[in-house]
Each structure stands twice: as structure tokens, then as C-alpha cells.
Design brief:
The protein contains four helices and no strands. It has helices at about 1-25, 30-50, 60-90, 95-114. α1 runs antiparallel to α2 (about 30-50) and α2 packs antiparallel against α3 (about 60-90). The longest helix has 30 residues, at about 60-90. It is a multi-pass membrane protein.
Length: about 110
Amino acid sequence: MKQIRTVLIAMSALTVAVAATAFFFAGPQAMLAALGGGSSQIVAVLAYGWIVRSKGIPAPKEMLAKHFLGEIVKIMLALALMVVGFYLSGANVAWFAGAFLAALAAYWLVLILK
């Protein structure tokens, strides 16, 4: 859970940075699109963390099953939120995609560096 918390903090920080940049360069609508893009990844990782959590030490088979279920839910949720976000972002789809990719990059960087 500590690693998921670290990932969420990094994803949130990059999402806020992209949203602030979007606000500075393109206005409040772009900022909202960027917040939506990053938040879609954050929600997906939160769902993963909720699925894989367990009390005590689970059996290896149970741990693997939870991990695969969590990954499937995370990917499907991220894709669904991305499609909805692209639809709702309109002219600010680039800011949505930028924050989405920044949050995704933070996810992978934290996991690689840990």
C-alpha cells in the first residue's frame, strides 16, 4: 500500500502541474480538461489498490488472482474514462491527453525507481 500511495502522490503532483500550465496558457477550460485527464489515471490506480488490498498475508494464488483482477479493472476503467474524457474535453483534448500521459508516466517512473 505504501508504494501505491507514493504512485498516487506523484501522479497527483504531475496532474496539478499540467493543469496549472494549461490554465496559464489556455484558460480554465483547458485546466479542467487536464485535471480530468490526470484524474482518470488516478481513479484507475485507486481502484487497483482497493482490489488488491488484503488483511494479513494472502495465499500466493489469491494474491496473483487479485493482482490480475486489479490490472484488468485498472486498464478497463482507464480506457473508459479516457474515452469519456476525450468526448467531454472538446477543443482541450490535447490538455486532457497531456495530463493523462503525465500521470501514466509518473505511475511507471515510480514503479521503476522503487
